[in-house]
Structure formats: C-alpha cells, structure tokens
Amino acid sequence: MNSKTSGPSLLVTDFFPKGYATHGELSYQQEIQTAIETAAERNQSVLFPPMVYKLDESGVRLHSHLTVWMYGAVFTLDARCAGDGQAFLGDDLTDLRICGGEIVGRNDVWPAGVNIRGLYFTGNTSNVRVQDMHIRDLSSNGIGVFGSPAMPARDIWVSDCVIEHCCNKYGDYMSRDAGPEKGSVREDQGLIAFYHVDDFVVRGCRFERSRSDGTHFYRCRRGHFVHNRVYGAKMGGYFLETCEDVLASDNVILDNGSRGVTIERGSRNCILSGNVVSGSGREGLWAPDSSGLIVTGNVFDKNGRKPNDLERGRIWNANITIDDDPGEPTHSPTHDYLVAHNIITTTGSQIAAIRVDAEVARGIVVRDNKLLGDNRQILVQGRNEGHVVVEGNV
Question: Is the pTM of this model over 0.90?
C-alpha cells in the first residue's frame, strides 16, 4: 500500500460520548463518520475497538489512503432499514485497506426490494485490499465493486473473507416467480459482484447460501479466482459474463441451485482448472458464446440435479454444455475451446456427460477426459460435427 500515517492509529471511540453503549443499543454513525474524516485529514489509520456498532443504510463513507482495522468489531444494520444502501461506501478511492470486522444485516425483516450491501465501491477505484471480513444476512452484495467502461476499477483484492446468506431473492428460471424480486436489479446478485474491474484477485474466501448467484463478474479483465469455496447458492456458483483473461483454479463449487460455473456472453481467454464442481442444479459448466476457453483437470461430479423441461425444449442437464444462447446481447461466436483431462461423473437422468451444439460451435476439442457414472455419452449435435474433435475419452 502507498498510504502514509502520521502518529498512532486514530481510535474511533474517542469521538463517542462519555459512557457510550457497546452492544449496539445506540447509533454513533455520525461520530464514526467524523472519526473517518479526521483520520483522512491526518493521514492516520483507523481502529474500531471490539464492540457492536449500529448503522443505518446511509452507511459510512470511506476515503483514499486509509487503513481501517476492524478485528472484533461487529456492524449491525438497523432492522428498520427501508431503502437501498450499504454499511460502507466510497467513490474514486485509491490506497484503501480494510482488515477484519463483521457486517450483519436483517434480510429476514427488511421489505422486499430493499437492497443493502456490505461494502459498495464505485468509480475510478484502485489499489484496494479487503481481508478477514465476515458479512452476512444482507439483501444485496456482501462486496460490490462497480467501475465503468471508461474508468474500470483496478487492482482490487479480496482475501480470506466469509460472505453468506446475502443478495436479493432470485426465482429459478423454471419457477413461477422467475427473476429478481421487484425493486431489485441484476447488480444486486452475487455475494461478491465486480463490474468493470481489472487486475483483481479473489482468494481463500467462502461464499455460501446466496439468495441469488454466489458470484458475478461482469466485463472484468485479468483476474484470479483461486482457493475459494462457493456453496449452496440459490442460483449459479461462479459466474463470468463478458470477461477476459480470468483464471479460476483450486476452487470447490458445491450444491448450487443453477449452473455450478457459467462462462458466457463473449468471454475470452478464460481458464477453469483444478476445480471441484459438484451437485449443481443445472450443468456443472455452461459455456456459450465465448472463445479461447480452457477447461482442464477439473472434477465434475453429478451435476444436473434439476430435471430437463422437455415440453419447452429446454435441455439443461448435461454435466458440461457448449452451445449458444439465442438471446445473448453480444452476438458472440462459440469457438476455440479445449476440454481435456477432466473427471466427469454423470447420473442416468442427465442427457450426456458433455453436450456440444455443432450448429454453432467451432474449433472445439474434447480430449482425454475420464467419463464415469450412468451416462458417459459425449453428445455432438448438429450438421457441423467436423468442427468438433472428440478423441481419447474413456
């Protein structure tokens, strides 16, 4: 980090009134904001002593060149929150470090469509480190970083964090109430959501029981998603949309309600290697409309728990599906994939271990995979089978 401090850390509670409450009975949000402003002016780091701090949805605004120590601090968002918001926010930040702390929401009592995040960073943000946080029970992202096409956020690292039971509610595609709850948008999906972020690292985190997607990376570039666990999301687990040069390795992606992994909408040069993807409701991997995709050395185990919708012609549940999405907005081709050296265990209810739509896919190589279970078929459909190489699979 490039931040500099003058003197010892600033103690937030020095700004609280005498005899202040320590169990969240009262809110000292304005005093906290004053402490943050003072620390920024003095180039000091900020220390939150271990206690419970009560916040409302307007949140606490952070500043550049700041280190915030929160170990043992618990930030509870008011049960009476009635509008969109967050616990902490910042715009156009640089050189920010947040260490420790717990953020606790009340999505059990907040009205539907109230979307509250834990950390919310926007604009030309760079050189941010978030580590050792625990964030739970919110109604939007635990951590949301939103750059823009003209000014992407850059050099964002999130490590050793636990984010659970957050996000808006999102109905399954096949349900009566499909899609986001009224008043929410797609940016509220994902326990961690990065939009227009370059040079990112998400490492050693646990993302569990999302009420929509476990993760969502949109138009991000040059990223690492490594050594994470994504468990029990209502929708997808690991989700790349229109991303470039992103590596996902050594992750465990279990029991998510829709696809375990989705790589789609013009994503380029992305790698999925050394992961375990098991128990997904739909495919273990759905990879339409992308290019330069490498899928090697993974375990795909008994994905496709939810049945096909044959009446509507919806065929979901191969372990891996490579095709196109007729409604996808980038109109990207599906070409140049290598799917090799994976272990794929398929149940009898699934239509195939791997399904490739040869009407649209080009330059697809499926090689030397180990196929186990009740359906070991590699299903290549369409007139252009010559564009798909299938060899050495056993």
Answer: yes
